[in-house]
Each structure stands twice: as structure tokens, then as C-alpha cells.
Amino acid sequence: MQRRYRTVDVFTEAAFGGNPLAVVLDAQGLSTGQMQAIAAEFNYAETTFVLPPGDPSHTARVRIFTPRIEVPFAGHPNVGTAFVLATESAAAGGPAPEVVVFEEDAGLVALTILVEHGVVLGAELRAPQALARGATLAVADAAACLTLDPMDIETGAHPPQVLSVGLGFLVVELRSREALRRARADIARHEALLPPLGVDAVYAYMIDADRSDGQSTVIHARTFAPLDGVPEDPATGSATAATIALRAEQAPLRLGERHWRLHQGVDMGRPSLLSGRTVLARADLPADVYVAGRCVSMMTGTFWLPGAV
Length: 309
Prior knowledge:
- With 309 residues, this protein is of the alpha+beta class.
- The protein has 2 domains: 2-126 and 294-304, Diaminopimelate Epimerase, Chain A, domain 1, CATH 3.10.310; 132-290, Diaminopimelate Epimerase, Chain A, domain 1, CATH 3.10.310.
- Helix content is 20%, strand content 39%.
- The protein contains 6 helices and 17 strands.
- An 8-stranded mixed barrel has the order 1-2-3-4-6-7-8-17.
- Strand 16 (272-280) and strand 17 (288-304) form a beta hairpin.
- The longest helix has 17 residues, at 75-91.
């Protein structure tokens, strides 16, 4: 049978910016191997497959694949898939849903649909898990993964460390925007150092104190995931969520809501803008973390897969 798909650019208001995503809308009956092959064919950072939910009160079961592996959760695939389903509903003559809930391996992912003047613009996700802190990596090794000097690494807030709110990354803070611009993935170091930590990608970021203010904190970031077949990811919502969760929980005045603006993809020509919120209700509780972004519809099509029911 023919399968419908749509592609969208996520975390952008302009076509050919942000992070491209393919959404396969008729995924029921596809095997895991077929989904992986389709994701490799699209060759985007991720491709999602929409399936009927196990619980009818939820919107869908969503599976997420990079060109090489399936992942339990990711940011831009959730935002983009929610946008696609909401615009599909609106195009069919129905109202856009206010909230969608996806069943994923990391847990339930709830997203609020962003609508302005009746037009669906994007979505805001809530991270499915509280922040989990994993293993740390020596500064010299983290620098080597990014082809940088150890002096480029900032450790005042945290060492290079595995963080996760559903999908783990080695998170490394850098001292300057210039260091972030120079960063490159050393694949051999990734292969040697990341699998023992249980991750396959490095999220490098720096806080732009000059542009941060009382309203929001500005962050610039890059993600390198060559072990996933993604040399550089234009926008990484899951790593963003884990990083701002850590920074929120470390803040001297921790309670309440904080806002974050995150720029990614600039150095690879796919500028992305992610909006973050962290809400800490009590000092003894983890922060609730939200990441939002706008989307642009790009392509609609069908494919036929021999042997698929």
C-alpha cells in the first residue's frame, strides 16, 4: 500500500532553516527494519512514524529513528510531528487540537499546539522524564571529542557530563562563542569515548551573558552525532531540555519560572531558534522543562514499499 509522508522544518519560521523532519503518517504494518530503512532513505537527523496509540485517550504512538538507530525520545521530532498532525486536522476541516499526547519509549510526551489567529504555528513539548545526571568525562577527553583545546572547556557550573530527560547526551559547556564556532567532531574520539558512557552524541553550548537579560537567558549550541549518521544536528530539543533543566536547578534563585532562548544550527547554515521554559515549584523537586518552536511545512508525498502490508 502507499504510505503518506510530510516533511517540515522545525524550530524555524523560514523554509530551509531549522531541523528538517520526515513524518510517515500511515506507519501501521511496517516492521522495525522497514522503518529503519525508510529513515535511512530520508537521511534526516530523525524520521517519525505515526501509529495507533495503545491507549485510545492518547493521540498516537510515535517511533523515532535516526539514519542508523531508533531513539526513545527526541525534541524536534515531537514538535514537528505534533505540528503535522494539528495541521492535518485543520486541513480536514476540524479544529486543531489544543494538546496532543504521544506514547514513546521514554514515556508519555505531551505537547501544546501553538496557534495564532487560527493558524497552527508549532508546538511546545514537556520533557517526559526528570533530569538524570550520568557519568562525567575528563576535560581533555571532552575537548578531544570536539577538536578543541582543554582551555576552551568551562567547568564552573558542571563538568562534561551525561544528561538526559529521555535521551542522553554528553553535555559540554564552552568558554566562548568563538570556541563553539571552531568545534568539530573527532569521529575516532567519539567512537572510543562515548559508547562507554552510554551515549552517541555531544551537545556543546555557551551562555551569551551579553544578550541575556532579566527576561531570558540566551544560549548558543551545537550538537555532533556522527555515530548516528548525523555529522551535525541543526536543532536538538532533547539536549536543550536536559541542559536548561540542569542550569535551572543550579540557579541561586531557583524557584519559579525561567525563560531561555537557544540558537543552534547557525554555524552549519541551518539557523534554528528554540524557546525553553523551566518551572521549579519547590526546592526539593526537579524542574519541569518545556521546549517550544515554530515549524514550516515543506513537502508532501507518498511512497510504496514492496512487501509491506
